[in-house]
Amino acid sequence: MSIYDLDLSSLEELVTSWDAPAYRAKQIWEGVYQHLYASWDEFTNLPTSLRVRMASEFSVEPLEPVARLESSDGQTQKTAFRLEDGQQIETVAMRYARRVTLCISSQAGCAMGCVFCATGQMGFRRHLSSGEIVAQVLHFARELKLKELKLTNIVVMGMGEPFHNYGNTMQAIDRLNDRAGFGFGARRFTISTVGLPDMIRRFADEKRQVNLAISLHAADDKTRSSMLPVNRKYDLEQVLAACKYYVAQTGRRITFEWALIDGLNDSVEQARALAARLRGLLCHVNAIPLNPTTGYSGKATSRERALLFKNELERAGIPCTVRLRRGIDIAAGCGQLAV
Ligand code: SAH
Ligand code: SF4
User: Fold this and answer.
1) Which of 20, 243, 298, 305 could be a cystine partner for 15, CB 3.0 to 4.6 Å?
2) Whole-Å CA distances, 50 to 28, 54, 61, 137
């Protein structure tokens, strides 16, 4: 187990059960989340006995970096980590001037099997613990600190389906959000889901400030089911009903993601069908030309067709951004993470 698997109250319980005063937990918490210590030796304000005991029970580096790649423009960096049981995950940092967005994983592999996604193509290995999710962030926070940079946004868009690992993902966000610790604002997180309606409703009921993105990719069930097998279980109507519920409950805007694939979902007709489905919903569409993966033969939409798609949506009153592909040369783009 790693120290990142504990929240402050369980840490307090633990140290008091060892007959240490509760404020020691606070000191550990600050060492981990404010000073970003990476070794128990750095916790010099703790008595040696407590430090030794903590070190024997909790690791401070549960992720072993096994490979690190940087894109040719130097702006995107991907790190592969080995977990304590040998599974591997990947985490991606993207720089935009002084802004740094971190894309974290919630599972090793993914059970959803989306055909165009490298993670889906590798299948499901296991859920990540909350600590393994938190540790990805702290690893990069430390690296950035050396460069005098700070994380500005965290997106849960790496490997895995976060709403399939709901509890651990939310616990990780809560832990990183704690003002007495890392203090990363809820509004600076974005969670992306393939669209699991029950979980979208649960998320809505919890009225979190975290941003929500839904992977839509098609405006009719036949096309969507051919891309996202989960659509056979939860069709577009069910997904969009949950989205409407979310907007009604929270008043927050939803982002819909759309990987533009040549000849499949990038026509003006698809844009019209999408606009009809989204009419009246507080939302925004993020379209991104498909990133290549070995297991899928579809091709990215051209820039020109992407702009036609966008224009058609916007004519119908649905705001749309065509995003740039990033980190493709190191397979760090959306849907390219696998081991
Ligand atoms: N499991 C979540 C989050 C991880 S995937 C989800 O599916 O939403 C993050 C985003 O990348 C999703 O919108 C996903 O549909 C998209 N994606 C997957 N493979 C892609 C590819 N090859 N090219 C572009 N986007 C892709
Ligand atoms: Fe899983 Fe998301 Fe990839 Fe689909 S797109 S297989 S849900 S990681």
Assistant:
1) 20
2) 10, 6, 18, 26
Residues 6+ apart with CB under 8 A from 216: 195, 224, 236, 239, 256, 257, 258, 274
Q: How far apart are CA 286 and CA 325, in angstroms?
A: 12
CA 266 – CA 311 distance, rounded (Å) = 12
Alpha-carbon torsion, ordered 131, 137, 143, 147, to 10 deg:
-150
Cα 310 to Cα 197: distance, rounded to the nearest angstrom: 26
Alpha helices in the chain (DSSP H): 8-17, 23-33, 48-57, 118-122, 130-146, 166-177, 197-205, 221-227, 236-250, 268-278, 303-315
At residue 103's C-alpha, the angle toward residues 108 and 337, to 5°, is 45
Residues having CB closer than 6 A to ligand 1 are 114, 116-117, 157, 161, 192-194, 215, 257, 259, 288, 290-291, 293, 334-335
Which of 211, 287, 194 has its CA nearest to residue 246? 211
Using the predicted structure, report yes or no on whether residue 335 has a pLDDT greater than 90.
no
Report d(CA 9, CA 16) in Å as an integer.
Answer: 11
50 falls in which pLDDT band (50, 70, 90)? very high
pLDDT at 339 over 80: no
**pLDDT confidence of 321, banded at 50, 70, 90?**
very high
Instruction: Specify whether the CB–CB gap between 196 and 205 falls below 8 A.
Output: no
**% pLDDT > 90, the chain:** 93
Alpha-carbon distance 50 to 70, whole Å? 39
Atom of ligand 2 nearest to the CA of 164: 7
Q: Helices (H) and strands (E) in the chain — how many of each? A: 11, 12
Classify 56 as helix, strand or coil: helix
Global confidence as pTM: 0.97
- Quick check: 282 and 318 in contact, CB under 8 A? no
Pick the residue whose CA is nearest to atom 11 on ligand 1.
Answer: 334
pLDDT band per the 50, 70, 90 thresholds, residue 259: very high
What is the rounded CA–CA span in Å between residue 217 and residue 291? 13
> Confidence class of residue 26 from pLDDT cuts 50, 70 and 90?
very high
